[in-house]
From TrEMBL:
The chain crosses the membrane at residues 12-34, 46-67, 74-94, 100-125, 137-159, 171-191, 222-242, 254-272, 284-302, 308-334, 355-384. InterPro entries: MFS, MFS_dom, MFS_trans_sf, Sugar_transport-like. It comes from Brevibacterium sediminis. It is found in: Cell membrane. Its main location: membrane. It is a multi-pass membrane protein. This is Major facilitator superfamily (MFS) profile domain-containing protein. It comes from the Bacteria.
């Protein structure tokens, strides 16, 4: 019997979702505050880029190791360490006397996000039957969307409410206090009970090499679909203000357009359980990827506010579906001894896409203009939809 099947333990999953909301509100708000703190300490644009890179670099290098640890039954222990590293680095950033200490805080926070994310995602296939995975992943990623939606405004409001040189420091202390609430949520998650631990030797017997995992039919399309979505979201956030500026849209209009995209993702994740009961998962995934890709390609072409609102709302709804669907796909392609490992590889792919694809796209803007960014990210989504469509015969 899974831990979630026991009525006494049902509170653990809402606790996990609450933990996810608070943690991602922290990550989203603090990353912007760290940029301002970098500038306060005399950092240049190059240093800002370095801060961004190290945040993603540490998870990229350690994801598989963490996944193997979780597969051995240490998900709750990893969650606790990740929780601590979602609180202490924020306080360190608030007190950082120089850029070196701030860099350490940024790296630690990125590692903390990896730990909490891998542990949270892995607890779902360890606790629920395959028929419930997509709905549960949908609830978890709904928590991510809600946290990302509230984190930045909270950090900004606290900073704006404090005048003078201490505004950013005060906002970081506020976010430290907010992130400390994850400790309460982590205690609730403990109601799930312990997962039996597997010895290092026993785990090594069942472990499959990363390249072998990637060679499993369907694994590469699933990871590619996830990578294309994350890159498109990042590029849209970064370059929509430029499209807006070129077409005479105000900052407020662009902000509301991005908010509409985020809200649409929240709505789709609320209803993903209903949608997967009506359509096969792979059919829903390739349709969502392709529809999002078409909308993204059209952004530079249909740049009136009302058309952008329609395009971003549709794309946001589709983005909300692709992430939990790819989580379920990679989980069902692997055996229980390697599930956290494949989820970690998926996360590493996401981090790689968030570094490599925007870098390549931004370089091309020098030659082809800002619209090329949306053409590239839309084309990648359409390609992801195509390769997913080719795997429709799979029984998932």
């Amino acid at each position: 019997m899974s831990a979630a099947a026991d009525p006494a333990n049902r509170a653990w999953f809402p606790g996990l979702v609450i933990h996810t909301v608070i943690a991602h509100a922290t990550y989203n708000g603090v990353r912007v505050l760290i940029s301002y703190r970098t500038l306060e300490l005399g950092g240049s644009g190059v240093v800002l880029g370095l801060m961004t890179a190290v945040y993603s670099l540490v998870p990229l290098l350690t994801a598989l190791f963490v996944g193997r640890l979780v597969d051995r039954g240490y998900a709750t222990a990893v969650l606790w360490v990740g929780t601590a590293l979602s609180i202490l680095p924020v306080a360190l950033a608030a007190t950082a006397p120089n850029l070196g200490v701030l860099l350490i805080a940024t790296m630690s926070l990125g590692f903390g996000q990896l730990l909490t994310t891998v542990a949270s995602q892995a607890l779902i296939p360890q606790s629920f039957p395959a028929s419930k995975l997509t709905a549960k992943f949908g609830h978890l990623t709904l928590g991510v969307s809600i946290g990302q939606t509230i984190g930045l405004p909270l950090a900004g409001m606290v900073a704006d409410a404090t005048s003078g040189d201490t505004a950013i420091t005060n906002a970081l202390w506020f976010m430290t206090a907010l992130s400390a609430l994850t400790l309460i949520a982590a205690v609730i998650v403990m109601l799930r009970g312990r997962t039996p631990h597997v010895s290092r030797a026993e785990a090594a017997e069942g472990a499959i090499a990363p390249l072998a995992l990637l060679s499993v039919r369907g694994m590469k399309p699933a990871i590619f679909a996830s990578m294309a979505t994350l890159a498109a979201v990042d590029l849209m956030t970064a370059y929509l203000p430029l499209i807006g500026q070129q077409n005479g849209l105000t900052v407020t209009t662009v902000t509301w357009l991005l908010a509409a995209r985020t809200f649409a993702s929240v709505i789709s994740r609320l209803f993903i359980g209903f949608l997967t009961r009506k359509w096969r998962n792979l059919s829903l995934l390739w349709t969502a990827s392709a529809a999002a890709g078409l909308c993204v390609v059209l952004i530079p072409v249909l740049s009136q506010p009302w058309t952008l609102a329609i395009l971003l709302t549709i794309a946001g709804f589709c983005f909300g579906l692709t992430q939990p669907l790819t989580m379920t796909w990679v989980s069902t392609l692997s055996d229980p001894a390697n599930r956290a490992a494949v989820l970690s590889i998926r996360l590493a792919g996401n981090r790689l896409s968030q570094v490599a694809i925007p870098s390549a796209a931004s370089a091309l803007t020098v030659i082809a203009g800002s619209g090329i960014v949306f053409t590239i990210s839309g084309a990648l989504l359409l390609l992801a939809g195509g390769v997913t469509w080719r795997n429709q015969h799979e029984k998932w």
